[in-house]
Fold:
Amino acid sequence: MLVTEKAPAKLNLSLDTPMRYFDGSPRWDMVMASADLADYVTVETHSRPATIKVYTDSGFLPNDQRNLAYQAAHILRSRFHCREGVTIRIKKNIPVAAGLGGGSSDAAAVLRALNRIWRLGLSQQELAKVALTIDSDVPYCVYSRLAHVTGHGEQIELLPDNLHYWVVIAKQQTSVSTPQILRQINYEKLEHLDNKRLIACLKAQDWRNAVKYMGNVLEPVTMQSHPEIRRLKDKMISLGADVAQMSGTGPTVFAICHTESRAHRIQNSIRGFCRDVHVVTLL
Structure:
C-alpha cells in the first residue's frame, strides 16, 4: 500500500523558554503555526521485512537512522510489531537546517501515513506521544495547525484556525547549530513573552494587537554570532511587514503580511541578497 502525506513547514509565532529541566533540555512555551511551504512524503510498505529505505531529492539529508523520517518508521514498526518493510520517498521543498521543522514534519508525515497503512487506529494525540520520542517539534507537526505548545513539546493546545495571511519565508546561506544555540541561553537575561495575551488576541481575531506579542527570545542569542539575521529582519519590517522574526533557532526569518501584494514586494526587494525566498499562506 502507498500513501502520500503533505509535510508543512512550522513557524514560531512566539518562542519562549521559561527554564531548563534537570536534564538540561529547555522547557518550551510557544505559539506555533504552519505555512503552505511543504515537503511531500510518500510511504510504501512491502514484504521485505526488517528494511527501512529513505530516498530524498536533497543531497544534504542522511538516508539512514539519522533521518527523523527513518526513526519514525522504525519506532512505529517496533512498537506495534509490524513485520513489513517500509520505503520512504521525500520530495523536499522546505529548506534544510532552517529552523522550519522540515525533518520533524517529514517524520510526522511518516507516522500519519503508517497509521493509515497499518490501520493502527491511533488518534492524533496518541501519535503525538509516539512523536515525542523522535524530536520535540514532531508532536506539533502531527497536527500542523495553530497551537500553543509547552513542556518538552508534548503539551499541545489547539487554537482556532483563523490566520488568513501571507508569509514571506527567507533563508540566507547561513548555518546555525541548534544544540550550540540552546547551550548559550542565559536564562537570567531572557526577555520573556506574554503568550497569554497573544493567544487571547488570536482567539479574538485581533491581528493588530496580536503582532505586538509575537517574538522569539532566542533571536539575541543567535544574532550575536549571525548579525545578518537581524539585518534581514529589519529590512522586512522597513518594507512594511506586519511582523518579522526568526523561526526556531534560525537562520530563517519570516514576515507576515495582511496583503499578497505587500508580501511579493518584500520578496522582490530581498531576492538580490537572499536567494531562498518563498511567498506562501499560513495554514
